[in-house]
Structure prediction request, 298 residues.
Amino acid sequence: MLELEPQLWHFHDAPSGTFTHLLACPITRRAALIDPVLGFEPGTAHIQTAAAQRVAAVIRAEHLVLDWVLETHIHADHVSAAQFFKQRFGARVGIGYRVREVQRLYAPLFWGARDLATDGSQFDRLWQDDDRIIVGGIEIHVLATPGHTLDGVTYRAGRHAFVGDTVFRADFGTARTDLIGGDAATLYQSISRLYALQPGTILHFCHDYPRGGAPPTEQMEVDRMRTENAQLSLATSEDEFVTLRQLRDATLPVPLLLIPAVQINIAAGQLPCAEANGISYLRVPLNSFGGVTVAMGE
Prediction:
């Protein structure tokens, strides 16, 4: 019996280069949202909801029932809008179970005396490899795909796979592996899992950074990615990839929004509680990250 194909909408947030994916069962109208974005202006520390409002407008216009917000990993380049959608639509929030390891790495640095539980309890569900998520008549399969981060997962629904930051469009290559417990050899194995998916599987990206006014590239079939990816094709050995990725990572600056994004995202998108003056504060650890800052790189 053929799997039911989801109805899809894709939203590109130009400031962060991030794609948010909305999928729905065409029969029941139940839906899931993957990697939603809140805007964050680093100069003023203003939270902006324009990107999330665009998605919310489609959910309402299409009369969807939002069951899940699905995070592919802890993002270092944008703030998650998970709580925006949980509060407005009652969605539950899920992420890979190894988020607990990410929390243990970063909670002491960012939260300090303001305790943050490191058991993943801020999320409604922690996914294991090969878990199944039912959204109406759609079955979403969870694939563990760490390497960019410890907690990376891919969500596959029908012939569509939402791959997070494992790979970018073929001429960009793959994700960096020098942050959030990343590891180049592990990423090689994860991408090999993606390349083993059925021919015709469509890989949907989490990011694209188009240049010169070109439209963003949101997807590519796995058949092309296997042969055309600039950093990892079927002809690339693990040793070759690890060497290439480590050399490339050594040249990359720290992501511009890492400090606000990671400390909010490990709390499932929850902002720190307001203090006595009614203002919420983020922590900025001095001399803890090296390099200049630009957007998350190839």
